[in-house]
Amino acid sequence: MKNIQITNTEVLSDNWYFLRRYTYRFQQNGKWVEQQREAYDRGNGAVILLYNRERGSVILTRQFRLPTYVNGNASGMLIEACAGLLDKDNPEVAIRRETEEETGYKVGTVEKVFEAYMSPGSVTEILYFFIAAYTPMMKVNAGGGLEHEEENIEVLELPFARAWEMMESGEIRDGKTIMLLQYVRIKGYI
Fold it and tell me: Which pTM value belongs to this model?
């Protein structure tokens, strides 16, 4: 944009992903104003909710999430829809890979339903949201994630009604999962 100029970018950390401090100028009421902000860049990601209309069920995962632990989640365990980083793949390829690695299901058709910035005040990530129908015949392995990525994921097949109750009670507190549970309910997929 003509009314925004990034004047300096400084890498504060590249330990896991990139934390950068940006100095930028923007026009406000006809005058140039300078500000600094930090942004965490871990790449873009994708998330999927597997659903089975006939069984009235969904596939979710449970795993330890350190950031939730240090911010009040006593066990650090979080129930989530399957998700992962794109790792330079297109979103559909990435979500198919993550689905098989994490849940053990090799899905057929996946449907992209929307994309969103999840924490735009501090994180650059765009998250691509998908849904897909699953059947027991699609289970090709146990799932659980990849050991070399230090993943230890429990696969949960839950009645949709139970997942909805868990969302309402606060047992499911992951934003992307809540968005997908609401989407499939509003659109009548389950």
Answer: 0.92
Surface-to-core class of residue 104, CB atoms within 10 Å of its CB (0-12 exposed, 13-18 middle, 19+ buried): middle
76 exposed, middle or buried (CB, 10 Å; 0-12, 13-18, 19+)?
A: middle
- Contact by Cβ (8 Å): 57, 159: yes
User: Does residue 162 sit in helix, strand or coil?
Assistant: helix
Does residue 181 contact residue 139 with C-beta atoms inside 8 Å? no
74-108 pLDDT per residue, tens: 999 999 999 999 999 999 999 999 999 999 999 99
Distance CA 161, CA 141 (A): 26
Rg (CA), the chain: 19
Q: Which two tokens stand for residue 92?
A: 């559909």
Do 164 and 144 contact (CB within 8 A), yes or no? Answer: no
9-38 b/e with 16+ CB inside 10 Å = b? eeeeeeeeeebbeeeeeeeeeeeeeeeeee
